[in-house]
Each structure stands twice: as structure tokens, then as C-alpha cells.
Fold this protein.
Amino acid sequence: MKHILTLSLCFLSLSLSAQENCIGPDFNSDGEIGSADLIVFLSYYGNDWPESNAFVCGEDLNHQDYNYSTVQIGDQCWFSENCRYLPSVSSSSEESFIEPKYYVYNYEGTDAEAAMATSNYETYGVLYNWPAIMNTNVCPSGWHIPTDQEWQTLEIYLGMSESDASYAGCCRGTDQGYQMKSSNVWGSFGNGSNSSGLTCIPGGYLGFWGSQWHQIITKGMFWSSTENNSECWYRSLEFSNDWVYRDTITKSFGLSARCIQD
């Protein structure tokens, strides 16, 4: 409304006095405010106005007071770090297939602020059960947890064959895991090249047997949003090989998560 009023006054002034410039928005960015700006404005009248400072993939994206790094891979834009959304935190004994659960590796308390002060949170982010990753607050508006097909699209772009991409199990592809793994923090000389820019890190996982916390620094497991009967598809990377493992897993486990742009 402010722009409409300003331009209307400019237009009236231009009509009455033939002056060239007015005080108002420089819509055509030519350094002057005048009739040309009114023409630009009218060309958008009734349509969506183009957003200023629009996000460009590769820039940081602020979500809930944290700046996530992003990366363009083919036609997709991904978070290049693990999700950190932590509205509450649960101990490793709290298992649920239905209720959202949020975990920080090796943290057994219930104080979210204390969990966020740990080095594991700072480095690896949050482990989520599947109901938690379906919380729309995990990803920013316009972003979502990748589907199984979107993971396959990524893998194919990195050189995996379509038949390998659709295969369930280990030993898929050639060096796609090496391209996806970060160039540091993986244990036992298991770092990748990170040539993809995805920077996958070994945040371990929460499984409900034995010690429950498993394989930090040697394995990274990442949710997809795609269900398969009562389970869900996920991806796993390991220090000891360069493949990308694809399989289904129970919804109660705690895995890492990434976001992809809509």
C-alpha cells in the first residue's frame, strides 16, 4: 500500500509538472525514481511481487536461530549438515513407534539445553525416530525430509546405476558413499572425499538392544520419509567401505536427518 500511494503521487506529480524524479521505490534499479518505476510496478500489478534477497542454494539458511549450510547437487538443494531441531530430549530407554522422540548421542538426561551443550550435539546434531522427522518444524518452510526416490535421484546423479539405486541392501554403486562422506571425523581412516558437498558425518544411531547407542564415528544413518509397510527406508554410510546401504528399519530407531528443498 505504501508503494502504491507513493507511486500514485509520483504519477500525479509527473502528469502535472513533468518532473522526472520522485521520492519512492527505485523498482528498476536505475538510480532514479520516476515514470520508468511506475511502468515496472504496473507490470507486476495483480501478480506476485518478486521476492527480494531470495535464497540461493549454496548459501546458509537460517532456521530456528541456526544457519544451516546448503549444497546444490544436480537439480536438488540439500542441507549439508545434520538437522539440529530439538524441542525436547529423551533418554535411550524411551522407545516409541508413534510419539516423536528426539535423542542426542550418549545423552541420558531430559534437559534439552544441557543436551545442546554437549559436543555430540554440536558435531552430529540430533537423532530422531521416524515420527519425529515427520514433525514439520524439523525442516524450514519450503523444505522436507527427502523421500526414498529423492535419495535415489541423488545417488544416480553421483554415478550410481538405476538398477543399483533401486536395490535394497549393501554394496550398491561404486564410490558414491565416498563422494558423500565428509573428509574428516570418520574413524579408522574412513573419511570420504566429500566431492558431492553433502558432508555426511558418522553420527551413529540409537537401536533398542544391548548398549543401545551404536557406532558413532564409524556409521551415519539417515532417514527418508518413505514408508514400506510398517517400516521406513533409510540410507547408511560406513567407515569401512565406499558404498551406500539402502534398506528399511523400524520407526522407533534414532537416526540422523537431512532436509531437501521442495
In short: Residues 2-44 form one domain. Confidence is low (pLDDT under 50) at residues 1-23. DSSP finds eight helices and 13 strands in the chain.
